[in-house]
Amino acid sequence: MPVLESFSLTGKVAVVTGASSGLGVAFAQALAEAGADVVLGARRVERLADTGALVEAAGGRWAALATDVTKPEDCTALVAKAVEEFGAVDILVNNAGLGSAYPATRETPEQFRQVIDVNLHGAYWMAQAFGRAATRGGSIINIGSVLGIRPGALPQAAYASSKAGIIGMTRDLAAQWTGRKGIRVNSVLPGQLHTPLVDKVLARDQSGGDIDTLLKRRQARIPMPFMGDGRDTANAALFLASDEARFVTGAEILVDGGMSARCD
Question: Of 27, 112, 159, 177, which is the active-site residue?
């Protein structure tokens, strides 16, 4: 098969969680551009129409369902929606996530559990639902973080723990399912990115100079001379979803501008 054809996702059906904003939008749009039909899940279901419009503009078909990934029944329903609408499910981008930053001595059990419940438990329930329904094999792309392998600038024990768990879960599911079910399981670990959240921060009053300080600190933590964005992460996911990654499973792809290569 020619290289460009093997990168195509035409005829594939993808499920994206956390698809109402940020990286989830980038994943959905990129998958559609590669030829996939996309099923969108998020708690903020009213915002999924905007993501769906981008999928449609890229030439893809789409469907959406309100989804709380902490509820296994919601995860099952989202995958069932893909099969109902498009006849199968081939790709899962496990993107739904929750961030936090609390000093370890002040973080409450509820705050810690909430992050683990969304980021790790939710990803597992989605993977379970996909694994039961993906009868023709497929690809799971779990969205981790560079913070799962090294500390960041903020106190983020809960978030880092959840993302380290994603790496372990990815490897174990790859060992269980790749040979038996034909499901490859990999993870993408983003680092410092220029996201819509950063755009919101930039739009605020900068008279105190805090924004400049924030951006300088972010930029100083990566060797790359520019900040990455959602498309950089989506491109890594497209590779893992495609036939070009047919021999890749149980792996992590870092998309961090070299942040993890630094020793400080």
Answer: 159
